[in-house]
């Protein structure tokens, strides 16, 4: 059964300077180069997706933005500020939040405690209100409030990972393959939630995906990464229509 | 759910059990034959001769074979049946004992010396208050202190005894050289130990798991070797003796010669039992302080950060938690309680030497934390009672001499029993006595509307 995800309109204008700017970033693991000079811009209020095959370097880019590993060359700017050499926890304090690859929720903590950890930055000032918001966004979490994170289903864990990131009231939300291993219906729920957040609150989202079809439909703009380099970029619709993209990521795909 | 298979009648398979028994008997013979059966000693003219103890070997082999037979024929099938039965989650309230274990335990601890003294009198109470009460409480406190580092923050520290040593030597040296009171030196020992905790913390910030364990183990040994070799300061392996006793803030002392000796003040007969009882309440207070601080910290951002750190360090950083500070505070606060316990230890013994701070001590404390269930305060307390109390009890079991001969010294088997008990407990309860961690976050009243939903999660 295919869950229908509506196509994003691309009327969001790129106003002002980008919120996130990745400039010529090269990242290495030891001597092996994983990113070979990547440029990516994310403007305020946009959903930008990065698609690419397994091992292309998508997660590496996301982690480089978060300062672990750090870029050896190039710069990462957030809101005009150079964050290339900042430690991760300080980057988080600038209100960049992520749902990392593998979700990384705290397995022995309850759902509520996981959410609480997400709100560490504000000393729980808005905690009750934000928890309520998360329940509206992901009603499933409300039912699972006192359950331990490790015992949640994959979809619930993904919802929790996103909710935990949102508890920090981020200016930029970064998601690494949120659809991985989830049933189409759950993917739709999660992508719908992201779209809602973007529409109602103007949340800026950087979405890393292998599920190119759904991601390009959701995103205003997209980048295609091959072997540590960005090879293509454009609006979601342009990329969906692009023959190369169709051949490499869409045809015969699982959408 | 409950389409349970009909309970099969319980049929022991004697043939298989007998085969098993013979096999384990042979293995036991192979192992214990040379180990126990043959012993080399010197005869009158200093020649090496071989004594044989085949009777003892026969007893051991017999025990192993029979034990294996019983296990195979009766115990294993029972256990299998137990496991096969569908787990019925008991929805009933936990028993009265279980619900109130903290209060009951606390009341018992408060009245323990009173009970012992009223049953046995002052003179006879010493052994029970000192060897059991104080000894166990020291390990409870050490367990709770290390629990912060290992149980909460998830940093496997095998050198915890180093901080215990720092605390003990701080008190021993400063009290004997400068005559400072215990009450000044107690916080000082804590601070010094905390400092050493940070000193250990820095180099190991990037290490986790096994690597961290090895480095902390080495750290513990370094401290001990320094204590042995820095003779000018520590008097080497001979240790420091005549460490002053604790007094009650100078009002009452426990030295018979003093004018304000407790016996003189209250008109009691001289007895060393008063000091023991006083020490008992002192270590009880220190242990409860550790518990109180830990419980409070767990509900505060730093405590939550510790627990999150144990679960996932990368996720912590991406949530804005400074993992460096989080680890260092865990080391420092854990070490501080080790230091408190150390200065108490020095005051209680009146003597310290490097001998008391060997790796085995660290291992015992880690074992207590792991057996307790990594993070559970009650679990750690139960584990300390079981392990330390259990090995102390061994001294009392004089009937073992009847079985194993009069030169049998049960003390020598403490570690064997300790190990066996650990293995048994870990098989029986792989996650420790209290394996589930207690959540610290709950929704406030305003959200209590969703109470019915909240309840569901327990099921
Ligand atoms: N920790 C690491 N050490 C060494 N190489 C790594 C590490 N993580 C990823 N890589 C390599 O970097 C490349 C990019 O990986 P990654 O960013 O995870 O790709 P993607 O997320 O696009 O699937 C791959 O070739 C991968 O093998
Ligand atoms: Mg990836």
Number of strands of chain B: 2
Bound molecules: adenosine-5'-diphosphate, magnesium ion
Q: Give the count of structural domains of chain A.
A: 2
CATH architecture of the largest domain in chain A: 3-Layer(aba) Sandwich
Largest sheet of chain B: 2 strands, antiparallel
Question: How much is the radius of gyration of chain B in Å?
Answer: 26 Å
Backbone shape of chain A: globular
Instruction: Please give the CATH architecture of the largest domain in chain B.
Output: Orthogonal Bundle
CATH class assignment of the largest domain in chain B: Mainly Alpha
CATH topology-level name of the largest domain in chain B: ABC transporter involved in vitamin B12 uptake, BtuC
Distance between the termini of chain A: 10 Å
Identify low-pLDDT runs of chain B.
1-7, 445-459
CATH superfamily of the largest domain in chain A: P-loop containing nucleotide triphosphate hydrolases
Oligomer: heterodimer
Number of strands of chain A: 10
- Tally the helices of chain A: what do you get? 10
Shape, principal axes of CA atoms of chain B: globular
End-to-end distance of chain B: 14 Å
- Percent strand of chain A equals 15-25%
Write down the overall mean pLDDT of chain B: 82
The largest sheet of chain A has its strands arranged as: 6-7-8-3-9-10
């Amino acid at each position: 059964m295919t869950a229908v995800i509506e196509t994003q309109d691309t009327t969001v204008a790129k106003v002002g300077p980008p919120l996130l700017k990745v400039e010529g970033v090269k990242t290495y693991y030891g001597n092996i180069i994983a990113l070979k000079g990547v440029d990516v811009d994310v403007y305020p209020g946009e959903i930008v997706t990065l698609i690419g095959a397994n091992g292309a370097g998508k997660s590496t880019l996301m982690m480089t933005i978060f300062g672990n590993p750090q870029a050896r060359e190039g710069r990462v700017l957030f809101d005009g500020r150079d964050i290339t050499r900042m430690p991760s926890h300080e980057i988080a304090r600038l209100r960049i939040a992520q749902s990392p690859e593998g979700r990384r929720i705290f397995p022995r903590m309850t759902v509520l405690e996981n959410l609480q950890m997400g709100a560490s930055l504000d000393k729980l000032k808005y905690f009750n209100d934000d928890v309520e918001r998360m329940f509206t966004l992901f009603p499933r979490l409300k039912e699972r409030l006192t359950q331990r994170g490790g015992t949640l289903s994959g979809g619930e864990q993904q919802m929790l990972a996103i909710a935990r990131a949102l508890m920090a009231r981020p200016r930029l939300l970064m998601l690494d393959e949120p659809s991985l291993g989830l049933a189409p219906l759950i993917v739709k729920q999660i992508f719908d939630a992201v779209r809602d957040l973007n529409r109602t609150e103007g949340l800026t989202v950087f979405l890393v995906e292998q599920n190119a079809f759904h991601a390009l439909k959701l995103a205003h703009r997209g980048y295609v990464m091959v072997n540590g380099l960005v090879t293509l970029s454009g609006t979601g619709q342009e990329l969906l229509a692009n023959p190369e993209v169709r051949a490499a990521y869409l045809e015969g795909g699982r959408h | 759910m409950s389409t349970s298979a009909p309970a099969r009648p319980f049929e022991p398979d004697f043939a298989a059990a007998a085969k098993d028994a013979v096999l384990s008997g042979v293995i036991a013979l192979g192992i214990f034959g040379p180990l126990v059966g043959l012993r080399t000693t010197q005869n009158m003219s200093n020649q090496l001769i071989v004594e044989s103890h085949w009777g003892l070997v026969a007893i051991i082999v017999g025990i192993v074979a029979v034990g294996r037979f019983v296990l195979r024929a009766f115990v294993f099938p029972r256990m299998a049946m137990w496991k096969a039965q569908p787990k019925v989650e008991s929805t009933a309230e936990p028993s009265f004992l279980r619900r109130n274990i903290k209060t009951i335990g606390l009341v018992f601890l408060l009245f323990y010396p009173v009970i012992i003294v009223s049953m046995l009198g002052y003179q006879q109470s010493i052994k029970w208050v000192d060897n059991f009460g104080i000894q166990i409480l020291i390990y409870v406190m050490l367990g709770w202190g290390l629990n912060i580092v290992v149980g909460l923050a998830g940093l496997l520290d095998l050198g915890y005894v180093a901080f215990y040593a720092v605390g003990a030597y701080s008190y021993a040296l400063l009290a004997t050289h400068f005559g400072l009171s215990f009450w000044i030196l107690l916080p000082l020992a804590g601070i010094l130990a905390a400092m050493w905790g940070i000193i250990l913390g820095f180099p190991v910030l990037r290490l986790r798991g096994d690597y961290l364990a090895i480095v902390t183990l080495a750290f513990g040994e370094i401290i001990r070797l320094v204590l042995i070799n820095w003779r000018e300061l520590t008097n080497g392996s001979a240790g420091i003796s005549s460490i002053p006793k604790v007094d009650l803030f100078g009002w009452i002392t426990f030295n018979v010669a003093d004018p304000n000796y407790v016996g003189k003040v209250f008109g009691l007969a001289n007895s060393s039992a008063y000091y023991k009882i006083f020490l008992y309440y002192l270590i009880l207070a220190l242990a409860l302080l550790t518990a109180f601080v830990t419980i409070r910290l767990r509900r505060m951002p730093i405590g939550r950060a510790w627990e999150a750190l144990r679960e996932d360090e990368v996720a912590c950083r991406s949530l804005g938690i400074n993992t460096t500070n989080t680890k260092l505070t865990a080391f420092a606060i854990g070490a501080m309680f080790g230091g408190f316990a150390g200065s108490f230890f020095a005051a209680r013994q009146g003597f310290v030497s490097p001998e008391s701070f060997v790796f085995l001590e660290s291992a015992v404390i880690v074992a207590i934390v792991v057996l307790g269930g990594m993070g559970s305060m009650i679990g750690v307390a139960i584990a300390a009672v079981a392990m330390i109390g259990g090995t102390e009890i061994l001294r009392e079991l004089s009937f073992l001499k009847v079985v194993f001969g009069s030169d049998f010294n049960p003390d020598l088997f403490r570690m064997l029993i300790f190990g066996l008990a650990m293995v048994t407990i870990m098989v029986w309860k792989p996650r420790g006595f209290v394996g589930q961690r207690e959540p610290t976050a709950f929704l406030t009243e305003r959200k209590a509307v969703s109470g019915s939903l909240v309840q569901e999660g327990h099921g």
